[in-house]
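Hi R.,

Here's the chain you asked about this morning:
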Amino acid sequence: MIAYTEEVMGTVVSFLVDTEDLSDDQVARAIQRACEELHRLDNRFSTWKPESELSRHRAGDGGTPSELMKEVIGLCETARDLTKGFFDPWSLEGGFDPTGLVKGWAAERALGILREEGVTAALVNAGGDVCVLPGQGYTVGIQHPLVREAFCAVVNTNSSVATSGVYERGDHLTHPFGGHVAAISATVVGGSLAMGDAWATALAVAGKEVLYLLEGTEGIEGFFINSSGAMFSTSGMAGITVDLAERLTGPTLP
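And the predicted structure, written out as tokens:
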């Protein structure tokens, strides 16, 4: 197993790649190509780079959207519908901002490149948004938002885990209907990471209202923690909590 990290898209992206049946050169090429894709997508979808396609789109001078932009817009429209508007990139100040979905979507594209290069088991962790190649399960520890040296949950996944909240990046979430943000941390497990990213943002914003939506959504579970430290979860997440006395003792995924 090879571990590698890259700073891109305003966060740290970590790779865990199973090297079975692959040479060191093959693994290095796979990771290099995946990182190049992440940087390419960052240059296209950054809200901080005035020359990015997204920045020009937000300013109204982007011209005809690229196929990638059309794909992201379509995914955002789907996520807005599924979350009943609690994930709404069009409601944010400054114009359309798909950041709450793009990071997970980009991580999945990087994972797809690893697959193209012959990797059969791998994990990509983009700042707490985790996706894995099907067929290989991973145990993921979720950092507690109030007790930094402890887990708040441990989940097993062979698909994706997405976490959103205000404890790392500060107060950057906006309630699209003018309410108060419900959670300091929210995690969604299952399905595609792009959609999980959007669901986690919506869950952090709306709390129980989105938790009820998740309860009726097949293949996806979730939980959130409010500012008092109380945890609320879908029924499928039973048994995920761990005692806060179980401190982090080694490498973990945030």
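Residues 24-45 form the longest helix (22 residues).

Let me know if you need anything else.
M.
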